[in-house]
Amino acid sequence: MYQLHQRLAADTIAIGQFNLCDVRLMNDARYPWVILVPRKEGVTESYQLTEDEQQQLMKESAFVAEQLASLVGADKMNVAALGNVVSQCHIHHIARYTTDENWPAPVWGKGEAIPYQQDEAQAVIAQLTVIFAEFLRDGV
After folding, report:
1. Alpha carbon separation from 100 to 18, 61, 106, 123 (Å, rounded)
2. Which of 20, 34, 43, 114 is least buried, going by the fewest C-beta atoms within 10 A?
3. Which CATH superfamily is domain 6-131 in?
4. Where are the domains of the chain?
């Protein structure tokens, strides 16, 4: 049975579900940052998914990257599946700006995360729910 890794649960906020993935907001207000987590038991790499699931993951990932970039006017979208700390398969979608504090370096290990205030997180999730509506499953 699928269970979200405790580190992902602690570091992110639920937005909803697509057909394959849980959709989560990274709790770091410095960057618009969405994580997709395939709801599959024991999967650490995308190649462990079936061919249909791999295609669905790519559709969901491309959709998130495009919609998030458009919403926030990103200069570049960083899309990555590292898994060095959390082995559970998950894909980061991070909107970057040439003016952000770490540009052009990666965001990992740079500075301290700034958690969202509750009302701020709710507002961001409301925006994301609107732009992701086409893929979000009802009743989640």
Report:
1. 29, 23, 11, 21
2. 114
3. HIT-like (3.30.428.10)
4. 6-131
As a whole number of angstroms, the distance between CA 59 and CA 48 comes to: 17
Give phi and psi for 37, each to the nearest 5: -130, 110
**Encoded amino acid at 77, one letter:** M
Entry pTM: 0.96
Contact 41, 2 (CB under 8 A): yes
Element (H or E) spanning 35, and its range? strand 33-38
Q: What six digits make up the tokens of 120?
A: 């701020």
One digit per residue, pLDDT tens: the chain, 140 residues? Answer: 999 999 999 999 999 999 999 999 999 999 999 999 999 999 999 999 999 999 999 999 999 999 999 999 999 999 999 988 999 999 999 999 999 999 999 998 888 999 999 999 999 999 999 999 999 986 44
